[in-house]
Amino acid sequence: ARARAGALAAAQTAVVNGLPAALPDLTTLIGAHESRVRAQPRDARAWAVLGAAYVERARRSAGTADYPRAERALQTSLQLTGKGNTEALGGLAALANARRDFPTAKRFGEEALKAAPKRWSTYPALIDAYNGLGDYKAARAALDKLMALKVGPAVKPAVMARASAVYRDRGWREDAVAQVTDAAAAASSPAEQAAYLTQAGQLAWERGERDDALRHFKAALRLDPDQSAARAGQARALASLGRTQEALTAYQGALAHRPTPQVALELAELYESLGMGQQAEAQYALLRTQVRRELDDGVDDELLIGQYEADHGDAEEAVQRLTAEWERQPGIEVADALGWALHRADDDEEALRYASVATDSAKGGGVRSALYAFHRGMIEHDLELDAPARRHLQDALRINPFFSPLRVPAARAALATLGDQPPDEEAPQ
User: Rounded to whole angstroms, how far apart are CA atoms 125 and 332?
Assistant: First the structure.
């Protein structure tokens, strides 16, 4: 009983303060608050905590059926109290971000901020919303306000981790690494430390530092075996090291723990790169099934569907979907995906316009992404813009020489046709 009470208190503190929580503790918290609202259906705060816990559990487990439950709980809390309910408003902003509905996240986040300007946990949701809408100036301003807040030591690591994510988006890699490293060292629970170690591993991976990435992901999983993003990251790093069978096993484990379409897509492309077409097609089929399930639960998967269709399906459909997504929420990820879809649909002039948005820091694309640079370089290659094509393809391989089992060979082949050798380090065969 004492252990259960401790887990319940830890999970509630984490959820209320916007911190990572252990998956078993979240389940305990949800069970307790489901009982609470059945007994006290007018307890607005219990409904708000329940809704926020559903959002966090869905994020941790990919159980998107929790999203409609979260929406019902948070809206019930809001209806019981009126507009000033910052916990419910903040929960609805987090829910909208989790569903990739950035206009709604912005609306609820700004309402929550107006009601309580010093509530720190509203700022990360607003930063995510602004980034998703391509409003990088507002995201930077929100981070500056967050960093200026006086927060307690329990919350400080989460603030540093959020700053790290924004610095990464600006292309400030060293600052991003320093912030998340400090966050991991100062984290107060294993689940929280595992989350920040996973973030550090992803930063290392994006720089092509495979061994460092793998070390971080393994450390995260030792602390929290339910840290599914670390399982997927470990699989990615193992594949890049040529440890193919271990990578396949790790990907399958990641999908068993948290069956997301993004990880299914990665595993399918790894199978495809290995010439295992039947296994790849099975994963693409799984991806389509998972997308349908997520759509039913209110998730906006248009970006992912567009990426899949551009490379493995109908490029014209990808263009239609991604054009509509760009009009609704014009973030960098969408600009890159739309540019690539246009290229695959043989509209390279228009493709270059969007690829430039994704890679030009003056237009907001400050993030150092091997994939974005590859996409732009390939578009320029087909437009016979040899010098910029060479520069961007080399940049892709310099940023991360192992960024994709399908695209790295394509980048090297394109560079060979341009009469220039790619960087020395070879990807594993």
Answer: 17
